[in-house]
Amino acid sequence: MREVVIVEAGRSPIGKKKGALSAAHPTELLAQVMNEVLKRAKIDGGTVGQVVGGCINKVGAQAFNVTRTAWLTAGLSPDVACSTIDSQCGSSQFAVNLAANMIASGAEDVVLACGVENMSLLPIGSDAIAGAQAGMGKPITRKYRERYEFTSQFEGAERIATKYGITRHDTDSFGLESQLRAAKAIAEGRFNSQLVPVEVPIVQEAGEKSGQVNTVTRDEVPRQTSMEALAGLKPVARPDGIHTAARPCC
Q1: In the prediction, which pLDDT does 206 show?
Q2: CATH number at residue 58
Q3: 111-115 and 50-54: which strand pairing?
Q4: Is residue 28 part of a domain?
Q5: Is 198 helix (H, G, I), strand (E, B) or coil?
Q6: Rounded CA separation 20/8 (Å)
Q7: DSSP SS3 for 232
Q8: Neighbouring-strand partners of residue 74
Q9: Domain of 60?
Q10: Which has the higher per-residue pLDDT, 6 or 249?
Q11: Torsion-angle region of residue 129: left (phi > 0), alpha (psi -120 to 50) or beta?
Q12: pLDDT per position as a tens digit, 36-83
């Protein structure tokens, strides 16, 4: 097995719901990051053997092979193979694992691993909802339900909390600490080396694109919050649940 190294890495700023990145086409966002990472690594796009990208909602703007669409949108070589994989919340992480395995096995010498998701444009579950509305069936069948209970990760988190005696105060404290640590890291410039500034369309109040662009250079998170503010948020899975939107995901 060959030794595998990550030569360079980069990411777009993190956007908030309906924030500065919300009107950006996912392929154009990813294309900018691809080009910048290749530039930083001093690698010509034509020398890349494979591009592997993670994406959950492969519908609408993220349909087809969104990784390849982004690669071509970036003006990069059409001779390079690209694949999009779905491992739900671990899609981009699995893309990195798969890329490393390709290199370690000798199948490829250079692989670009990436991922994209615009959840303001395509909220979680968009692919299943779109398919059902179009009359193409539901993803979970009766046979599935005969073998397993179909529930959400949010309900799963509630059951874990019940099993291990985790309280609402525990989760609020954890959520606040996550926000505070992120704010401290941003203030200290710890993310500066990984951030890729991206150009995105400016949207007018009515929701229409203005024809102008804005360059986003920093994360739109974390939020200014407190234990009191977190205590006022509604649970996401059960009326009496302990998990809210303030909880770090996955």
Answers
A1: 62
A2: 3.40.47.10
A3: parallel
A4: yes
A5: strand
A6: 26
A7: coil
A8: none
A9: 1-149
A10: 6
A11: alpha
A12: 999 999 999 999 999 999 999 999 999 999 999 999 999 999 999 999
Residue 101 within any structural domain of the chain: yes
Confirm if 60 and 91 have CB atoms less than 8 A apart: no
pTM: 0.92
CB-CB contact of 154 with 243 (8 Å): yes
Give the C-alpha separation, 212 to 201, whole Å: 6
Across 100-120, b (16+ Cβ under 10 Å) vs e yields eebbeeeebebbbbbbbbbee
Record the tokens describing residue 127, joined without a space. 């692919």
The answer to whether residue 240 is domain-embedded is no
C-alpha distances in Å from residue 161, one per residue of 69, 140, 234, 235, 237: 41, 26, 16, 13, 12
Given the structure tokens 């796009």, which residue do they identify?
Answer: 45
Residue-wise pLDDT for 88-117, tens only, equals: 999 999 999 999 999 999 999 999 999 999
Give the tokens for residue 45.
């796009």
